[in-house]
Design brief:
eight-stranded mixed beta sheet; single chain; alpha+beta
């Protein structure tokens, strides 16, 4: 089983390779990051590590054989016991349960290691697999958003929340 690791400096080359190899695949579901993301990646990676050091974000990579990154699972905008969950899994790893397992693991870390009480996550309506991952992890549509609808860079999506204090939270495999 791949290992979920906290993002570190030595992950930079593997993360960049992961993002490049899966750029077209990701662009089918989320807006493309643009060329600047790739040309300035070293500085971007260093900035992520700085954010993580300050505790405003917690970044994780799912690492498979030979150090290949198979997925990214991030908790961003950490404040007041809450954070936003974002994740992406490599095309070659899709459909194997790795997204569900990675989300489950990062939710458990959010609760036990980072002391968070609530997570928010959004997924595009055009990405039913991602919506299913959130539901399997115990996320429910966010009743504070009318109809739970959100705009994800021009695409319709649904916002979900997870109460990490609930006994069932992040418990399903």
């Amino acid at each position: 089983m791949p290992e979920l690791e906290r993002l570190a400096a030595h992950h930079a080359p593997a993360v960049l390779r992961f993002e490049r190899e899966n750029r077209a695949y990701f662009a089918r579901y989320v807006p493309d990051r643009g060329d600047d993301f790739f040309t300035g990646y070293a500085a971007r990676h260093a900035a992520l590590l700085d954010e993580q050091e300050r505790g405003t974000c917690h970044f994780h990579v799912l690492v498979g054989d030979h150090g290949a990154v198979l997925g990214r699972f991030n908790l961003v905008d950490v404040a007041g016991g809450s954070a936003e969950l974002g994740y992406r899994v490599a095309e070659r790893a899709a459909g194997r349960g790795l997204a569900s397992e990675g989300v489950r693991r990062v939710c458990e870390l959010a609760r036990t290691e980072y002391g968070l009480r609530r997570l928010v996550a959004s997924a595009a309506l055009a990405n039913p697999a991602s919506l299913a991952v959130l539901r399997r992890a115990g996320f429910v549509p966010d009743g504070s958003v009318p109809g739970c609808a959100v705009d994800l860079d021009g695409e319709p999506g649904l916002r979900h929340t997870l109460d990490l204090r609930a006994p069932y939270a992040a418990a399903s495999p």
